[in-house]
């Protein structure tokens, strides 16, 4: 773990109470308060605020997945290192609360556990969702021993050995099965009277949504390991179990079931909509992706929702075309076209500057794309084509919901005035069905898996950029992507395939030596396509 583990985990109950004294009414360490503290610490992961979305995701994974535009010699180089390192620290600050919560829970009598179980189970779902996201970035991580110092008080325990990523994925897949079943009505788990929106900003204490959240993250983790590596059988078995037993393992399948953090402008949590998306620099820097635009030109209504128009040429400054930046974009072309020669992410679009936007954690199209792939590969019984079309429909409906439910956020301008834009009319059911059918039968794809992953990648787009990057690494699709070498001449000639451990981990965890040899940006994780 980090050197700061001496602070994070080296706390007695009294010290822990003193450090977690927010709000001021907290007077003792309780499982309920630790759960709320855990969610508070993880809000920078679950919500699209500055550090998570602007500084980390869009400037790194967004460019590597080519759902954000990039060009130039240093196109693959990471952003500001301090923000990158803080991603690791934020996770372990969150883990601090969960590990202490777990310790207190396991010390309870069997009778007392019945009244506190819901906090523990929800805490597991939330930390596992966060843990999967980081396993996807780094691979092997300290988990089993992480936080031991808070339980033993031994300074040596501030150093945590690395768990094999395969073992942690398997732990998550196995444990979330049990957790999901505990949230089922038939389990008889007690719902605490105060398990509500004031303590649970994700699901407002709704057991059904926690059950779907648990099963959906289990499904996501299972898919990650199902295609390649040493535990494909584990992933495929879990996928089959979930998809073929929907009554026992319900997942997120429609818009109303989406796992979100509702915008709460006046809430003490200060979870404002689209934080981190309103940075002033975006008006000139967040340009569209050439790869994404290329795959959305064929009558895809989402193109108009996400991007502004660009000028036709320097000689003809009419806003009539969609044009994005990509690895193939030359400096000469950029100079000739000028600032308005490329489409921009719409500031007045369906999410940016939208006071009704909700922070997204897991949404229904992802499940349907997983179903389509699972059915296609024979991992579960079902109709791949039907699932694919449902996924496309859910995605289009998702984009249009937030496009049509917009209220301007703040006093600044919408930003769309700098480029022309088109507000599309909602397509009819028949038009969506025709579009989905055309995509399923298109000759633009190498095969049906390419069709599925390409549309999944389009759906993730500029919102779930980590998942877009994960899909490229796992499957090698979408096909036809260009990955030219960078020309910085030093390090980042090639697009990264994993994220490096932070400097603090390298300097202060003695067990770093056990993973040092494979700690590069280009070490493929075990589940990645060879």
Task: Give a written overview of the molecule.
This protein has helices spanning 5-8, 13-19, 31-46, 50-64, 81-106, 110-138, 149-152, 165-182, 207-226, 232-243, 282-285, 290-294, 301-306, 331-337, 364-377, 384-404, 429-440, 448-460, 465-475, 503-508; strands at 259-261, 310-311, 319-321, 359-362. It contains 20 helices and 4 strands. Mean pLDDT is 86; it is low at 1-26 and 273-285. 47% of the residues lie in helices and 2% in strands. The protein has a domain at 287-463. It is globular, with a radius of gyration of 23 Å. Strands 1-4 form a two-stranded antiparallel sheet. α15 (364-377) packs antiparallel against α16 and α16 packs across α17 (429-440). The chain has 530 residues and is mainly alpha-helical.
Helix content bin? 40-55%
Radius of gyration, in angstroms, nearest whole number: 23 Å
| Proportion of residues in β-strands | under 5%
Spatial order of the strands in the main sheet? 1-4
Counting DSSP H or I runs of 4 or more residues, the number of helices is 20
| Content-based structural category | mainly alpha
Largest sheet: 2 strands, antiparallel
Which spans of ≥5 residues are poorly predicted at pLDDT below 50? 1-26, 273-285
Overall morphology: globular
Q: What's the total number of strands? A: 4
One letter per element, helices H and strands E, the order comes to: HHHHHHHHHHEHHHEEHEHHHHHH
